[in-house]
Design goal:
Structural class of chain B: mainly alpha
Number of strands of chain A: 11
Structural class of chain A: alpha/beta
Strand content of chain A: 5-15%
Shape of chain B: flat
Strand order of the largest sheet of chain A: 4-6-5-10-11-9-7-8
Shape of chain A: globular
Largest sheet of chain A: 8 strands, mixed
Radius of gyration of chain B: 23 Å
Number of helices of chain B: 3
Oligomer: heterodimer
Order of helices and strands of chain B: HHHEE
């Protein structure tokens, strides 16, 4: 009997289209896998009926000889940051617990229109703030991966940690993620899967709970470059309801995939070579260069001089935007309300927000409020936006010489849950390689490279020119073909 | 720059997050660690650099001046909008009394 949970997105879609099996069989197998994996805590709510209804529609369309969409018959996981009509959408927060949107986000609607179904809403770091999935109000997500010879629970990364855990554990062939400062790439890297953040503006932000609006961007997480290309094609597209949506056609990324990099030049940013970085990270980076050379690319060193300042600039800009965006949670229009006995409106706001936000969210709101406050605005926020312009200029100058950039995705493999919880700064440093591309709005992807000695996955990151998702996917494919990464976590849940 | 306990209490009040003494005890050193770390941005020479306004050059679009051009963002959805309110009365959001 076919184990549908081992199949990727394209294999499922093509098999359904060919009549080798039905979409319903695929949905049922994945619903069962989700139901049996509660130990991972990857889902906040499961929606087996949504998956079955979508599958039945695809099977009926096929029987009627109708044309099937690019995601037809594929059951996916939906990060809980996306508003889904009639299904609780919380951003993994208490303040939005019980919020049932009366509308559907553009990205999720695009996926349903393409024939996908929803297995459930995926756990994540609260309001997408975190790199380990330990800030969710609904509990930590456990990675399906464990260190060799250890039972310690490891992080699936964050903030799209429910997505990464679910895809790596074969609960779904693909899932949506969102990336503000690495939240697709870092979890993909530490769980041995593939994820791409497109150019800022490719995927509509309409109906996506806002964290830092100038950085937030949705993207797919799956188990191959081709699957990511197909799903990104279904998610992306111009949306007049998002004022920063790019009005440009969506190319056929999947159809144009080409791992031959002859004539391409790949840049290796000198400043990403950091002191004290694990030898295994360095080794995987060296291996990545060799793979790209083997694919026909020329590999040269480039300089991105402001790399060091990207992360601190991000931790001013993102909290500043968050403090503004999260002002809407006031206990009036939706979500939690905490009204202490005999108190007035202002007390209600303060009590609701104290009760409804987690510690990391509060930390970032306070930082953001501080850096935007009178007297400090120029020293912090304006300076950070200037540094952001310099980070982007570095990339523009590098891309005058190279077609794409290769770097590690993360400075370490997965760490154990709880290991970094008491040190917010150490946690932030996890995104040191991911944040610069976010600040510059560039397409960037993580592809699995290898396993560490401890048996944990490491990823390699490709960063491309604005709007050149194709170049990023092609280089990713060249790595994927040479890495031959087939490892998957042993089932213990 | 570092922040004092009083300043953190003031920021929390501006952000409408009530914080007790215990919460402040935790928050003050955490914020100071983060602020000390972002301080390094001061090293960067940004003379004659314009602060970034938009990461991708975009023209501001105007929508057609049509009522309910997109039904999802148009009007006439009062009940949908109130459906998630903790308190909704007579077609309005309900809040504690603000005028004596």
């Amino acid at each position: 009997m076919t184990d549908f949970t081992q199949m990727g997105l394209k294999a499922i879609r093509d098999g359904v289209a060919a009549g080798d099996f039905t979409a319903r069989e695929v949905a049922e197998a994945h619903n069962d896998a989700v139901a049996a994996a509660s130990e991972l805590n990857a889902f906040i709510v499961a929606t087996p009926d949504h998956a079955l209804t979508a599958a039945d529609r695809v099977d009926a369309d096929r029987a009627a000889g109708k044309e099937l969409g690019p995601m037809a018959g594929v059951p996916i996981g939906m990060k809980d940051l996306f508003a889904t009509k009639g299904v609780q959408s919380t951003a993994a927060s208490h303040i939005l617990e019980g919020f049932v949107p009366p509308y559907e986000s553009t990205v999720s609607q695009n996926l349903w229109d393409a024939g996908a179904g929803m297995l459930g809403k995926l756990n994540m770091d609260q309001f997408a703030m975190g790199s380990s999935n330990e800030t969710s109000y609904f509990g930590n997500v456990k990675s399906p991966w464990r260190k060799n010879g250890s039972n310690a629970a490891m992080t699936p990364g964050g903030s799209s940690g429910g997505s990464s855990a679910a895809v790596a554990a074969r609960l779904c062939p693909a899932a949506t993620g969102t990336d503000t400062g690495g939240s697709i790439r870092q979890p993909a890297a530490v769980t041995g899967i593939t994820g791409i953040k497109p150019t800022y503006g490719r995927c509509s932000r309409w109906g996506v709970v806002a964290f830092a609006s100038s950085l937030d961007q949705a993207g797919p997480m799956a188990r191959s470059v081709e699957d990511c290309a197909i799903m990104l094609g279904a998610m992306a597209g111009f949306d007049p309801k998002d004022s920063t949506s790019i009005d440009a056609p969506v190319p056929d990324w999947a159809g144009a995939l080409d791992a031959d990099l002859s004539g391409k030049t790949i840049g290796i940013p000198r400043e990403y070579r950091m002191d004290g970085i694990a030898k295994e990270i360095d080794d995987s980076w060296e291996q990545g260069k060799a793979w790209l050379r083997d694919a026909g690319a020329k590999v040269v060193e480039v300089s991105l001089p402001h790399t060091k300042y990207a992360l601190p600039a991000y931790y001013i800009i993102a909290p500043a935007e968050a403090s503004s965006n999260l002002a809407r949670y006031d206990g009036v229009r939706y979500g939690l309300r905490d009204l202490p006995e005999g108190s007035g409106l202002q007390d209600m706001y303060a009590a609701t927000r104290a009760e409804g936000f987690g510690d990391e969210v509060k930390r970032r709101i306070l930082i953001g409020t501080y850096v935007l406050s009178a007297g400090f605005y120029d020293a912090y926020y304006t300076q950070a936006q200037k540094v952001r312009a310099l980070v982007q200029r570095d990339f523009t100058e590098a891309f005058a010489q190279v077609d794409a950039i290769l770097a590690p995705t993360t400075p370490t493999a997965a760490f154990a849950l709880g290991e970094m919880q008491d040190d917010p700064l150490a946690m932030y440093l996890n995104d040191v390689f991911a944040v610069p591309a976010s600040l510059a709005g560039l397409p960037a992807m993580s592809v699995p490279a290898t396993l560490t000695q401890d048996g944990l996955p490491l990823g390699l990151q490709i960063v491309g020119k604005p709007m050149d998702e194709q170049g990023v996917l092609n280089a990713g494919l060249a790595i994927e073909q040479r890495a031959g990464f087939t490892a998957q976590p042993g089932k213990w849940w | 720059m570092s922040v004092t306990r009083e300043e953190v209490a003031k920021i929390a009040s501006l952000a409408r997050i009530s914080m007790d003494e215990d919460a402040l005890d935790h928050m003050v050193p955490e914020l100071n660690n983060i602020l000390a770390w972002v301080e390094q941005l001061g090293e960067v020479d940004t003379t004659s650099v314009e602060p970034m306004a938009a990461v991708i050059p975009l023209e501001q679009r105007l929508r057609d001046d049509v009522v309910d051009a997109d039904p999802k963002t148009g009007g006439g959805r009062r009940d949908d909008i109130l459906a998630n309110a903790p308190v909704a009365e007579h077609g309005f959001f309900g809040v504690p009394k603000v005028i004596e």
